[in-house]
Amino acid sequence: MAGHKSESRVSKVDSETTWDLFLSQATNQARPVVVHFTASWCMPSVVMEPFVDELASIHHDILFLLVVVDEVKEVASKMEIKAMPTFVLMKDGVVVDKLIGANPDEVNKRVGGLIN
């Protein structure tokens, strides 16, 4: 089928329980994590979703998560998310970098730095 979207490698967080589960799995597997905090009403965030999907298809050794802040307010609050999009990069369960704004080049650079 033309234009059919392939399965995304970005996992959507739908609850605080799922968040905790994803993070503990990533920590146990020593996998870095990139979290895209988004909102459906924030066009810059929505525009970044295909870019994040593309990054996830390239970097198989990183766990990519999508958090829709209005659906999982507890996680957004716990992570002190104040603006969208926000990208949080984590290693061993700890935040190592945080980037606010729709800047594909900078996100790409920082994701690259996460695995080097």
UniProtKB/TrEMBL annotation:
Pfam families: Thioredoxin
Keyword Signal set for record: no
Span of domain Thioredoxin: 1-116
Domain of life: Eukaryota
CDD domains hit by this protein: TRX_family
SUPFAM superfamilies named in the record: Thioredoxin-like
GO-annotated molecular function: protein-disulfide reductase activity
Keywords associated with the record: Disulfide bond
Similarity comment text for this entry: Belongs to the thioredoxin family. Plant H-type subfamily.
Entry-linked PANTHER family: THIOREDOXIN, THIOREDOXIN-LIKE PROTEIN CXXS1
Name the record gives this protein: Thioredoxin
Organism of origin: Erythranthe guttata
